[in-house]
Input
Amino acid sequence: MENQNNNSKLKAVILVLSLLLLASLGYMFKMSSDAKKVETELSSVTTEKENALTELAQLKTTYDAAIAENTSMSEELIAERDKVVKLMEEVKKSKGDAAAIGKYKQQIADLQAKMNVLIRENDELKVKNQQLTAEIDSTKTILVEAKEYNQVLAGQNEELSKTVEKASKLSILNLKTGAYKVKSSGKEIETERARRADILKVNFTIAENKVAKSGDKSYYIQVIDSKNNVLGEKKLVEFGEKSLTYSFISTVQYENSTVNVSENLPGENFEKGTYFVNIFDKAELVGKTSFTLK
Output
């Protein structure tokens, strides 16, 4: 009887111990499962945090590249990039709980959407700038070509003007001078004797020129004796920086046809020696000759 009681007690103890063992094993299993769950959640949060930082870094790189293109949107792009950098700092400092990561993921999604809009606008702006640059380059090319063409035309016009100016100049031909004795009858007799001379005669021909300007044409006649004295009126005229002392002016009505001109320079007591006669068209010497009186 006593043995039966002992056996019953032993079985009870074994049953209690078994129950305690099962309870302990159950608790240990639960603790292990909870630990694995926490570890899994922490690993997942860590991965999400790293992914968030990677996405933010990609956003920053994209903004840096767009800002480097230096378009008119640079300030707006810089402002958005600064928001990305700020969020990166917040994510790095965060403890990594799921709620915070979820909030950051939403902020990143908003930043991503904003970036897509800005980059698209920036790309459109670049295309327009490229088109405008091409148009400006084309316009510059046209202007350069036009300038070169105008320079060629200007050169041709200058050459043409010089040709016309040269062609329109009148030519003095057959310049002849000499001394003459004037008789009481008015008859003029050429002489080589200084003491017999009453006048010095200057004869020349203006050649025909159909492109020259018609009208009055004045020539300055300069007669210089053997002692280098200017005879006649001895008047001084200036043409810019040049000056001329002349004996008299010969004015001719020119109508594009050949004109014979004869002018007399009266005098007395003419010196012996060589005389020089020059004809000027303003400051330009257009004819010259000389003669000698004995």
Q: What stands out?
A: The mean pLDDT is 80. The beta strands are 172-182, 188-191, 199-206, 215-224, 235-239, 242-246, 248-254, 259-266, 273-281, 284-293.
